[in-house]
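Standup notes
- DV: blocked on the single-chain target, sequence here:
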Amino acid sequence: MLEMLRETLTSLGYRCLGTSDPEEALTYISDGKCRIILCDLKMPGMSGLTFLDRALREDPGAYVILMTGSYSIESAIEAIKHGAYDYLPKPIDRQRLKKTIGDLAEQFDRLRRIHELEQRLVSDIEFHGIVSRSPSMVDVFEMARKISRHYINVLLAGPTGSGKELVAHAIHQMSPVASQRFAICNCSAIVDTLLESQLFGHVRGAFTGATETRAGLFEYANGGTVFLDEVGETSLAMQAKLLRVIQNREIQRVGSPEVRRVDVRLIAATNRDLRSDVAVGRFREDLFYRLSTIQIRIPSLAQRLEDIPALVTFFIKKYNAAYGKQIHGLARRAQMVLLQHPWPGNVRELENVISSASLVTLNDFIDVHDLPEHLQKPARAMGQDRLWRPLPLEEVRKEHIDRVLELCSGNRVHAAQMLGIGRTSLYRYLKREGKVRAAGIPAP
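- DV (later): unblocked, structure below
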C-alpha cells in the first residue's frame, strides 16, 4: 500500500515520505516536513482517529486524509468531526486521489497569495507604526496629518491600550521639529513630589536624595515635544504648574528660584472624561481648554474589529523577527476566538496575546491551545450562565467594579484606569465595602 501510494503521488508530481510507523509519521509532522497526510484508519499500535487527533495537535495546519477498507457514511462523518479533511475508501481510486490532492494544492496556492496580499496591505495601511483601515482610525490619521505641521497643544482621549502614545509619536514625527527630542512622562505612575522633579528638574539638596542637579523633561525636550500620558491623574497643584508652563513657557527647577525659558510642544493623553472631571472640580477648567486646543479621540479595538486581521498579521511579522520564528498566521478556530473576545485591554492586549502565542507555538500556525488560558475558555461573559434579573444601579456598579478588578488581577491602578476613576476613589470604595484584603490590594 505504501509503495503504491508513493509511486502514484510521485507520478502526479508530489514529493512524499512513507512509513508504516505512526510515531515516525508524527515526528515528520512535528518537524514540519508534511502538510498533507494520508493515513489508514486501522494501523498496528494506533488507530487512525487517535493518529488524527495527535497529528492536529502537532500541526493544526496539517490536512489529514483517512483511508479505510470498510467505508460507511457514519464512519466518514465521524472522521470529519474529528478534523479529517477527507475520507477515502480502499482500494484508492487514482482519479479521486488526484482531485483531492489537487484541490488542496490549489488551496495552498490561494492561501499563499492571500498571505502575500495581506503583507502588502499591512504595509500600505501602516501609519507611522499604527496599523488600521477602519474609517474611525483613518479620520484620526487625517487629523494627525493636519495638525502635525502646526505647533499647537493636542489632547488625545481614548481607553488604555488603544494607541494614544503611537499617535503622539506620529504627530511628532510629521512635525517640523521631528529631529528634536520626544520625551514621555506617565503621570499616573509617579507621585506628585517625584513628578514635579521629573518634569521640571531639581537642584542639588532640594530634597532628600537629590545628590546632584538634574534637568527635567521640559528642558530635556526643549525645542521638541513632551508627551504627558494619563494627565487626568495629576493633582490640582500639579495642574497649576503645568498651566504656567503652557501660558508662560517657563519652568523652575525644584529648589531653585531661577526661571528658565522652554519652548516645547505639549501632547497630553487621558483615558478619563476630563469634561466630567472639570464639572466636579477634579480637573482645572483653564488647563483643560489649554490642553485641548485640538482634541483627538482614539477608538477602542472593540469599535474597530475589522482591524484585528491586519493587526494580527503585523504583530506576527514583528514577533517572527524577534523570536526567529516562521509563523504564517492563525488557525481558523483561533481567528474566531480573537474576533469574539471583547478586548478590554485594546490593541496592547492583542499584541501581548500574539507575542506570547508566537513564543510558545511549535507550529507554522497559532492555534487555540497557544493562546493565553483566559482565551481558551468558552467565549461567554462571566455570569452569563445565570438568568438575567433586574438589579438596583448600586448593585450593578458593585458587580462591574468586582469584574474589572478580577480582570486586572487585583491591580488597583489598572482597574481605576479601566473604570475611568481615580485610584483614591477606587480605594475608598473598596474600603467602604470591606474588600481591600479580599481583592488582594494592600492599603496605601
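- Follow-up: Confidence is low (pLDDT under 50) at residues 379-387, 437-444.
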